[in-house]
């Protein structure tokens, strides 16, 4: 499944990826085999070997070898699934940061998008998401066509049968419309396309993911009962483990999307204070008595230095006792500190994006054309976002 959270690649590993074996590189990105894969391989061998022993009782202990080979075949299918995501992403101009195979299957991690959110970006995300399951279904179909060409019950037939079954199941399950499955990210892209918000789409698709997680457990429990049988504890156990992974992954995606959604919908007027610019030698009296015509409030006074650049803020408390004395504004300023400029229609996401280039900025000056009209204390802005 494609991983939506991106990170920078590193030579031996990728931030956010599990540590493990580096199998090589593809599409300019490392292919990592997480240590947890060996746990999955052992579990798969335990589950598959009894079936192999029933079909071929003459194999004896070699049925375990076939079970281990099946785990390799299964993860080969997962790799082709992830490779399909990566190739499709590259065709649309994305860079692959890493491909990882792990206990839950795998993921393809892309580097951050540089293009703005748009209908095209939503449909690109949709295409990247669905291509992996489609490749599995195609591989499963091809395996089904070739299956009759091999002697039934032979080891190659058993492995091809496993390959066919695994790909059909991988394709079908991953197309279910709930995050973290590929079908869930495809659904997210559809919501994104029609709501204009990738975060709203993620929240909606994550709820579908939770419903699917519950559905897995319900089916594992009820399907045998409907047939008059008792639920198999092993089947219920691994189904519950998968359901838990789906539930917690969906919840985590929803949590992060909710936080991002708050930023997306945040009203900057909550933290923009009215402000005016005053020249270095402006009379203190006229600056102190000025009232903002839109809010009726006395604005902050940003003092420009002799080169016309913002230099400091007038300390109204210190200046209050000097009205009528003919003093100038620069005599009552405190240093402004690092600042960044922004247009009056700045949004919270765009301000955060701008701050990635000026991470030390402590204040934001809001401009209406050439005129200073507002002031944002960035610490207050961050505190507001967290409390919003």
TrEMBL record:
Which cofactors are reported in the record for this sequence?
Answer: Zn(2+)
The record's subcellular location field reads: Membrane
Keyword Membrane attributed = yes
* InterPro entries attached to this UniProt entry: Peptidase_M50
Q: What is its main location?
A: membrane
Query: Keyword annotations for this protein?
Result: Hydrolase, Membrane, Metal-binding, Metalloprotease, Protease, Transmembrane, Transmembrane helix, Zinc
**Transmembrane ranges?**
31-53, 59-80, 122-145, 157-179, 199-226, 233-250
What membrane topology is given?
Answer: Multi-pass membrane protein
Q: Describe the location of the Peptidase M50 domain by residue ranges.
A: 70-147, 160-207
Family, as annotated: Belongs to the peptidase M50B family.
User: What is the name of the protein in this document?
Assistant: Peptidase M50 domain-containing protein
Species of provenance: Brevibacterium salitolerans
